[in-house]
C-alpha cells in the first residue's frame, strides 16, 4: 500500500504513546508485545496486532522498540534473529551506553542497523514537537528516517557512536532523578511541618530557576580545574548541608538523602578543600 507504515514492539506506557502518535498521523502500525493483550485497546484505534514477533518483524523494514532495557530486546529477537536482515531498528529503550554499543554490533552481525534514541519526554509528551529525543547511530539511517521520527518528538542527532545518545540521556537522567528525589524529600520535611507540596511548589521552583545561571558560571571553571573559593567556600557548604540534615532530623524525617550529600562535602573538607569552592568535590567522584 502507499500508506507509511511502521512496526512498534513493546507496549508499556511509552510504547502505547508512540503507537498513538503514529496512528494520529495516519500511519499503518503493526504492534507486538510479550503480553499480547496490551495491544487490544490499540487495535480499537486502528493498529494491527501481529500474533508473533516474526509477523511483526516481516510486516515492516522499520521497527521501533520501546522496552524496559536491552535484555528484553535479546529475549525477543534471539529466536528470530535470521529475520532481522535489512531491518532498521529504532531502539528507544533505556540502558547504558555500553549495552547500546553491544546491541548495535549484535544487530550489525545480523545485517540490521540500529538507531538508538533517548526519549526526554514522558508518554503524554509523545506527538509533541516541544519534546526532544536524542539519537545516535549511522548518520544516513538517521537522515533517511528523520521525518518519521519527528512524528514522535523533535530530534537531536548526537553522532555515529551508537552509545552517544544514551550517554547524554543518562547524564541528564542522573540530574533528573536526584533533583526530583530531593524535592520529594523536601516535601516530606515540609509536610511534617504542616506545609503541603502545593504550598512548597513555588519555593522549590524559585531555587531551581537560579540553577541555569549557576551552572553557566561554574562550567568553565570546572573545565579549567579552577576551584577558587572566591564566591563560596566548601566549609560554608558543609555547614549548610549539616543544617539541612538537622532540619530533616528535627522533623522526624529520614535524612539519608542529604546525609549522602553531607558525606561528600565532609570528604572534600578532609582532603583539604575547606577554603575551595564546592566544585572541588568533583575530585571526590574519582575512584582511587
Ligand atoms: P515499561 O517497563 O512499562 O514497558 C516495557 C515493555 O518492555 C513492555 O512492553 C514489556 O512487556 C516489555 N518487556 C520487558 N521485559 C521484557 C522481556 N524480557 N521480554 C519481552 N518484553 C519485555 O516501560 P515504559 O513503556 O514506561 O518505557 C519503555 C522505555 O522507555 C524504557 O526504557 C523507559 O526507560 C523509556 N522511557 C520511559 C519514560 C516514561 O515516562 N514511561 C520516559 C522516557 C523514557 P510486557 O508488557 O509483556 O511486560
Element-level helix/strand string:
EHEHEHEHEHEEHEHHHHH
Spatial order of the strands forming the largest sheet: 3-2-1-4-5-6-7-8
State the distance separating the first and last CA atoms: 60 Å
Overall CATH architecture of the largest domain: 3-Layer(aba) Sandwich
List the total number of helices.
Answer: 11
Strand content: 5-15%
Tally of DSSP β-strands: 8
Mean pLDDT: 97
Total domain modules: 2
**Estimated structural class:** alpha/beta
Ranges where pLDDT stays below 50 over 5 or more residues in a row are none
Describe this structure in words.
- This protein is 50% helix and 14% strand.
- The protein is an alpha/beta fold and 288 residues long.
- The protein folds into 2 domains: 5-160, NAD(P)-binding Rossmann-like Domain (Rossmann fold, 3-Layer(aba) Sandwich); 168-285, N-(1-d-carboxylethyl)-l-norvaline Dehydrogenase, domain 2 (Orthogonal Bundle), CATH 1.10.1040.10.
- An 8-stranded mixed sheet has the order 3-2-1-4-5-6-7-8, with helices on both faces.
- α10 (234-250) runs antiparallel to α11 (256-270).
- The N and C termini lie far apart (60 Å).
- NADPH dihydro-nicotinamide-adenine-dinucleotide phosphate (NDP) binds at residues 10-15, 33-35, 38, 66-68, 72, 75-76, 92-94, 119, 122-123.
Amino acid at each position: 500500500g502507499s500508506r507509511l507504515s511502521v512496526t512498534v514492539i513493546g507496549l508499556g506506557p511509552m510504547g502505547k504513546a508512540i503507537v498513538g502518535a503514529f496512528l494520529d498521523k495516519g500511519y499503518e502500525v503493526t504492534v507486538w508485545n510479550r503480553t499480547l493483550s496490551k495491544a487490544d485497546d490499540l487495535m480499537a484505534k486502528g493498529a494491527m496486532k501481529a500474533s508473533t514477533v516474526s509477523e511483526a518483524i516481516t510486516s515492516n523494514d522499520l521497527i521501533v522498540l520501546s522496552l524496559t532495557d536491552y535484555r528484553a530486546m535479546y529475549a525477543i529477537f534471539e529466536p528470530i534473529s535470521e529475520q532481522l536482515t535489512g531491518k532498521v531498528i529504532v531502539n528507544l529503550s533505556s540502558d547504558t551506553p555500553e549495552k547500546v554499543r553491544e546491541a548495535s554490533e549484535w544487530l550489525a552481525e545480523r545485517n540490521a542497523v540500529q538507531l538508538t534514541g533517548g526519549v526526554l519526554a514522558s508518554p503524554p509528551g509523545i506527538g509533541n514537537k516541544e519534546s526532544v529525543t536524542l539519537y545516535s547511530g549511522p548518520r544516513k539511517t538517521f537522515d533517511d528516517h528523520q521525518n518519521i521520527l519527528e512524528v514522535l518528538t523533535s530530534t537531536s542527532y548526537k553522532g555515529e557512536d551508537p552509545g552517544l545518545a544514551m550517554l547524554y540521556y543518562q547524564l541528564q537522567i542522573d540530574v533528573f532523578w536526584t533533583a526530583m528525589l530531593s524535592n520529594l524529600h523536601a516535601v516530606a520535611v515540609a509536610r511534617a511541618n504542616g506545609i503541603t507540596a502545593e504550598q512548597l511548589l513555588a519555593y522549590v521552583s524559585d531555587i531551581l530557576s537560579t540553577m541555569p545561571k549557576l551552572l553557566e558560571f561554574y562550567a568553565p571553571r570546572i573545565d579549567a580545574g579552577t576551584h577558587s573559593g572566591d564566591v563560596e567556600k566548601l566549609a560554608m557548604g558543609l555547614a549548610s548541608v549539616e543544617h539541612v540534615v538537622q532540619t530533616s532530623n528535627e522533623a522526624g524525617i529520614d535524612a539519608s538523602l542529604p546525609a549522602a550529600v553531607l558525606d561528600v562535602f565532609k570528604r572534600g573538607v578532609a582532603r583539604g578543600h575547606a577554603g575551595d569552592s564546592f566544585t572541588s568535590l568533583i575530585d571526590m567522584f574519582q575512584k582511587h
